[in-house]
């Protein structure tokens, strides 16, 4: 018996270690991708989209609080890639770990569903998971820059805004995609593969042109988002939003298209406003459409059950689940006697 218990404990420890290493590796890989493109505001370097925050929140929603050691390890690896270990590193480590953990706790508190099938789930992810939860990482991170004299107090709010929006964008775009990937059924349904291919080709052709055009026509991406949300719900709209955000970030960091001849502050404001509104539109619109479709299916199923009950009653049969009524014949005979 003791051997069985020891083997079970060993297995749990092995699973925990493997899960921690996997979460840390995913966080670090996402961090390296996010660092490929960055902007400089008030001498501080930040990324317009910080994917690790989305990875962290998704891992917590899937694995629970057991994922936080992996997140902390991933944060440490990213920080060590950027700079040497120092006392202020502990502050950034705590802030970047606490932010997704607090976001997860708030989402669990309101009954968040990982399938994002309700509008309230989309709103919770936006306002609790992204906008509220990431206040912690932005405040702690920029605060450490001020404390260590790497940033003046006059530049606090501009850097804080850029940091906060970058972390929030990671949650808005990356977390829904990872949750959908985790719940996806294989093989996928390819009933509309021709339309999906057409949408993908059209998006790949239009989005680079729009984001790099000297004429400010960024609004032309919204019909693509609406098309993707109406026909393919969350997976289509979020993939379209992710690709558009990446292309807009590339254009902004290169100073091309609608971001030409703008100051760093203006580039940051324009890019973050565009990415934020686009991600909000894609997430909330697809959540509304999914909720309406689920409601319609529930109503259709209820109507079908009602039709079956009425058919049984019309035919003189008892509805399913109820015993047949006793025959009236014997009672009439007894009355005649």
From TrEMBL:
<feature type="domain" description="MASE1">
    <location>
        <begin position="21"/>
        <end position="293"/>
    </location>
</feature>
<keyword id="KW-1003">Cell membrane</keyword>
<feature type="compositionally biased region" description="Basic and acidic residues">
    <location>
        <begin position="323"/>
        <end position="337"/>
    </location>
</feature>
<feature type="transmembrane region" description="Helical">
    <location>
        <begin position="89"/>
        <end position="107"/>
    </location>
</feature>
<keyword id="KW-0812">Transmembrane</keyword>
<keyword id="KW-1133">Transmembrane helix</keyword>
<feature type="transmembrane region" description="Helical">
    <location>
        <begin position="16"/>
        <end position="35"/>
    </location>
</feature>
<feature type="transmembrane region" description="Helical">
    <location>
        <begin position="122"/>
        <end position="147"/>
    </location>
</feature>
<feature type="transmembrane region" description="Helical">
    <location>
        <begin position="159"/>
        <end position="179"/>
    </location>
</feature>
<dbReference type="GO" id="GO:0005886">
    <property type="term" value="C:plasma membrane"/>
</dbReference>
<dbReference type="InterPro" id="IPR007895">
    <property type="entry name" value="MASE1"/>
</dbReference>
<feature type="region of interest" description="Disordered">
    <location>
        <begin position="314"/>
        <end position="337"/>
    </location>
</feature>
<feature type="transmembrane region" description="Helical">
    <location>
        <begin position="273"/>
        <end position="290"/>
    </location>
</feature>
<protein>
    <submittedName>
        <fullName>Integral membrane protein</fullName>
    </submittedName>
</protein>
<dbReference type="Pfam" id="PF05231">
    <property type="entry name" value="MASE1"/>
</dbReference>
<feature type="transmembrane region" description="Helical">
    <location>
        <begin position="55"/>
        <end position="82"/>
    </location>
</feature>
<feature type="transmembrane region" description="Helical">
    <location>
        <begin position="199"/>
        <end position="222"/>
    </location>
</feature>
<keyword id="KW-0472">Membrane</keyword>
<feature type="transmembrane region" description="Helical">
    <location>
        <begin position="234"/>
        <end position="253"/>
    </location>
</feature>
């Amino acid at each position: 018996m003791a051997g069985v218990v020891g083997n079970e404990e060993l297995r749990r420890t092995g699973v925990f270690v493997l899960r921690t290493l996997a979460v840390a590796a995913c966080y670090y890989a996402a961090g390296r991708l996010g660092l490929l493109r960055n902007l400089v505001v008030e001498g501080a370097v930040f990324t317009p989209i910080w994917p690790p925050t989305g990875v962290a929140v998704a891992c917590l929603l899937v694995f629970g609080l057991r994922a936080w050691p992996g997140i902390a390890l991933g944060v440490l690896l990213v920080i060590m890639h950027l700079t040497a270990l120092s006392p202020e590193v502990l502050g950034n480590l705590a802030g970047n770990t606490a932010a997704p953990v607090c976001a997860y706790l708030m989402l669990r508190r309101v009954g968040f569903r990982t399938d994002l099938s309700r509008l309230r789930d989309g709103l919770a992810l936006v306002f609790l998971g992204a906008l509220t939860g990431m206040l912690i990482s932005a405040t702690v991170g920029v605060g450490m820059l001020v404390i260590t004299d790497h940033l003046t107090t006059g530049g606090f709010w501009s850097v804080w805004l850029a940091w906060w929006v970058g972390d929030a964008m990671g949650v808005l775009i990356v977390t829904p995609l990872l949750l959908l990937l985790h719940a996806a059924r294989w093989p996928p349904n390819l009933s509309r593969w021709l339309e999906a291919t057409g949408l993908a080709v059209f998006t790949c052709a239009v989005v680079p042109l729009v984001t790099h055009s000297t004429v400010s026509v960024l609004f032309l991406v919204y019909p693509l988002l609406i098309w993707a949300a109406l026909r393919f719900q969350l997976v289509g709209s979020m993939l379209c939003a992710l690709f558009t955000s990446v292309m807009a970030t590339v254009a902004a960091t290169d100073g091309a298209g609608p971001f030409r001849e703008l100051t760093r502050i203006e580039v940051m404001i324009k890019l973050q406003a565009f990415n934020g509104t686009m991600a909000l539109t894609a997430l909330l619109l697809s959540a509304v459409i999914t909720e309406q479709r689920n409601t319609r299916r529930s109503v259709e199923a209820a109507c079908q059950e009602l039709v079956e009950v009425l058919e049984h009653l019309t035919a003189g049969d008892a509805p399913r689940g109820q015993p047949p009524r006793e025959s009236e014949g014997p009672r009439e005979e007894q009355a005649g006697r």
